[in-house]
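P.,

For your records, the input lines for the assembly:
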Amino acid sequence: MSEDKVRLEILANRFQAIVDEMAQVVARTAHTVFIKETQDYGSVLVSPQGEVFAAPRRYGVLMMIGMPMDTAIARVADDVRDGDVFISNDPDTTGGMCTHLSDVFLWKPVFHEGRLMCWAWTFIHMSDVGGRVPGSIAPSSHEVYQEGIRLPPQKLFAAGVLNRTLLDTFLANTRTADQNWGDMKACLAGLATAERRVHELIGQVGGAAFSAGIDQVLDYAERQARRVIAHVPNGTYTYWDYLEADMVGLGLVRIKVALTVADGAITLDFTGTAAQVRAALNIPTFAKRGHWMLITGLVNWLCTVDRTVAYNAGLVRPIAVVIPKGTILNPNPGAAYGARYATSHKVCDVTIGALAQAVPFELPAVDSGQGSILLVSVPDFATGGTRVSVIQPIVGGSGARPAEDGVDGTMVLLNFLRNVPTEMVEIDMPEVVIRRYGLREDSGGPGKYRGGTGTVIEFETGSPYTSITSRCMERYLFPPPGRMGGHPGTTGYTLLNPGTNHERDLGKIDVLELGPGDALRIGTQGGGGFGDPFERPAERVGEDVANGLVSVATAREAYGVVCAGDGALDEAATRRLRADHLPSHGAYAFGPAREAHEIRWPQALEDAIAEGLADLPVSLAQFLGGRLREVIDRRASTDPTEVPALLANLRSKLGQRPTA
Amino acid sequence: MTAAAGRYRLGIDIGGTFTDLQVLDEATGRVVTLKTPSTAEPEEAVAAGLALLDARHGIKAADIGFFSHGTTIGVNTLLERKGASVGVVTTRGFRDVLELRRLRLAATNDLFVPKPVSLVPRRHVVEVDERVLADGTVRRPIERDAVLAAARALVDLGIQAIAVCFLHAYRNPEHERLARTWIAEAHPGLYVCASSDIWPQQREYERFLVAVINAYIGGRLRAYFGRLGARTTALGLGCRIFSTKSNGGVMSVAAAAERPVETLLSGPASGVIGAAHVGRQMGEPNLVTLDMGGTSVDVSVVRGEVHYGTENTVGDFPVILPAVDVSAIGAGGGSIAWLDSEGVLKVGPTSAGARPGPACYGRGGTEATVTDAYLTVGILDPSAFLGGAMTLDADAGVRAVEAIGRRLGFDRWRAAEAILRVASANIYAALMPQLARRGIEASEFSLLAYGSAGPTHTFLMARELPFRRLIVPPAPGTLCALGCVVADLRADFVRSLWRDAREVTDAELVAQFGALETEARSWLAAENVELEGAFLLRSADVCYTGQSFEVNVPIPEGPVMVGGLADLFHERYERVYGYADRSSPVRILEARAQIVGVTRKAAPNWPAPKVDGAVEPMGARRVYADEGFVEASVYRRLDMPTATAVTGPAIIEQYDTTVFVPRGIRVTIDPWANLVGARA
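Structure tokens returned:
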């Protein structure tokens, strides 16, 4: 038994070495332009049954441990041979392994003495896989056919022989064929490395020990996860938040979860979550257990609470999932998926929000929720084409933690994201001058621990037809909530020509055209605060003031600290101000905007709407849902019990099929 | 060197626990090594070392003609955040370059990852109106009054040094130089530096940081060099003192006082320089170096030349100055063994460090470490540690291991071996991806192990590690000091171009490299050292336009042409990535030059018995290995003649370490006194 626990640690290390080495090979040889900045690739080892038993923790996409490989494996199961390499990017035929077409997966069986020992598996986010827009992803796409070419699981190599027809057909349907083939070769090099190392390892420990090791590391992670979960009080914890889909004309989309903890297991029930949308915001989870786009919050919590947990699919075994079909988190095949990141981050927020009710001091307040990449393109007069460049990732601050401030200017949950030096941006795009790039002052949610500040970027263009794109902007309406008495952070903003007499507040942008002399300023969200700000030591508030991160006015109003601009405290005045304060430790602070919205749209009404639409065909639910909201919006008030009648009325007005 | 009198070359490496000395007698090739405990004031250990050299070996300070040493003062000042209070004067709108960093956070899957803290608090960063554009043109001129007001505000806040950091100063340094001059005139005595003076490379965070670190650690280093000079002069040392650099070379301490940031990574770099020297002697160009000490395991790669990197880090900070590419891959002999909540045996990452150190050091440590495991299985002789200079507390070490064993249900020996196996797996798991990152196939390389624990552990991993051979040099515990002795003068220079090759003319390229060469040669001339020769290594960082993967392209001697550079890039790219697209436009990022002033070095002549033949073990020791006891013959390294071969199980003891050779491994002593092992 003990010997097993030594062998387990040794094998876990060897498995880790293989996936880390594979990741290095892929990253070093890949061609995708932004791989260094966004780390959007992955490399794992998968058990014959389809569970990820080893995954990198330092390189690439981190949530691959929740990728469901079972459907993809089942589809090819009847013909798997040594030297095969499979390929797919299709969510609908892989049961949610792929979650948008841009992620192209390659995987390879590894045999020993004729027996399938494991799979080596990689994916890379390609720059373009075809579809209606360059880069393939547009939030306004509303069916998967607009998002590029689909490859259901099939052999790219059969027993080592390349299927040239398949490859050429795929590449011919993309805008970046050479780069894509380069990326695929990087993945193939990674798979070859993994296969060689697995063979070496089996040579050293034997096939039986290797196979037993896979089961042991998976069971080990599962035991660890169950033990961590077991210390959470049993119960059901409900939480919801809203995806801001107003920029694609869909208003606020509710994501709701009831998180049930029962003796070391968790069920995430997303019943009540909005219907799937006619926009590229759907996540094809197929309601798979521990699906990777649903577990970011929970897995980060597991890894934070117990730093020793083994990082593999065993961790997500205890996480069951219930999601009604036809919702944004479990859409019917054919929906659009490209920009699902914003939705996934919102899911992370609601799972953390729910769990925090049970273990409040094990989770942070909410972060900026926005992981957008600001792209600029200008006409290239020399070639007649356009030149495209990244200006910056547009992210805001982290939520405050139970014993530390949030990180300023970036999100703990997007820890891998890198910015671009301003000097590099201005060389790449001389038409653009960055006027300012820094922290957004006074934006972090006040708290005993302050939310991380957002950022501000301001730039001007000298070129006609300057096109600005920033996908997945979020939290312009409702700020990141604060927790345990902490205040909410701040919402984002976009100002056109700030400080001039034609300044305009644009709200969220998707695509925007600017002309010579135009300037744009984007402020990102400050994270929510944690704990009552009146409990923050006055010296720390003074320090924030001296550093210009908190204003004198906020220090006084939110923190009860009286100080000068250089942070010098007026201790007597501070004492007086703080003495009158009633302690405040409310679980959440959502801010006035959301509170006003929820008075207008009570949860009972939202529940009634979700329920009323639940059994309708998707397109009908989408259409009637929109109309129903318009009707309710025009009425003085609507009781939830009126919803079925309102719906029936709307439905009766739909035109009959014309008869001949 | 300048003082031709001295016949000895002295290298000293000051580490956390020990200060290591190596002396090379240029007349005879004789090598002397010494270790002495490090002291709170490092110059005291240097003085103690000099006294020991005289007392034990009759080597007088006055006869030393070259003295080069490495210090950790710079890196520790940075890591422990004990540097000067630095103010920054910067471009309007860019106050937060140091706060934002490059955004990326160190830890993953950690909601409670510590918040990074800038070296310079935000209130000590003052913006002034000025702006230079990417092409070097001035968009907004700088004004003296504004700069002086900013500096005055910082001085009033009590800062001790100022770094001037403006956008695009690598392209047009005029504003930075004006500001630096104005501030220096107004505040004589205040340390002022400008980012374009220290390292004029594009990317503001990294360049600003170089200047800030330089200002941050400079005061303490200058004070130390002053004390060291006074102390050694008093002891009769007449030669100049050199400091090792992150790039593996040396510079005069006067140069180091100006650019202390260049010493940050000098410690690990010296070891690799020493290792490369050993490899060159024995004709092994392809080395992976593994330095396993008490608190860390560092790896690097030598392919004929040492491998340089420009993405090194110190603590939280990236350092873009070229440095020998060394990666820390884990904790060393001090790594603590423990059981997690599932009862699974783990080793590290926590280390007992130098204090309290492993339980067997008898300094109050109670947790079992890898070193305690060596002792328990019988590899270490508690009475022969450091040539008997330090006695190990065997009972304490064994007790600590037994405590782990009880919880595993293992006896002490099995527990100790389990700790070693897990430690090996840890090293393997961290090492292999590092090789992949550098594009290296282990089977074409030899592993050279050094540091106090490297030689002890390396053959234990021989079965897993796919290297051609495993090498333990003659003085593995003082290899860094050897690196000090054999180092050349070396300095790096850079110019950022960041332009498409088709926009750059040959004349411009020639001018850029000409300017670099002038700068490099005047640096070497200013060092004023008698040399065997000097050469200039030129290279350029080049990439395909629009891609983020750059390749450093060495440029052969002769005139440099844009077309020729592009051809060299395509060739090199193809070698690295397997294909090249000769029709794609190419962008020239950085022009680089490294000047090397070759110092005189006699070939070390290690004191090995000249007679070839068999060697008698001086005894035998019972060692627990491979789940059973074996009788390991014990040899003294100094007694082993060239060409001796020993097959494991065997133990080879020497002054600075103990080597264990398990069953199935055969080691030979090569003509340069290295132990070379391979599977038997």
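Two observations worth noting. Chain B touches chain A through 76 residues (CB under 8 Å). The two ends of chain B are 46 Å apart (CA to CA).

Regards
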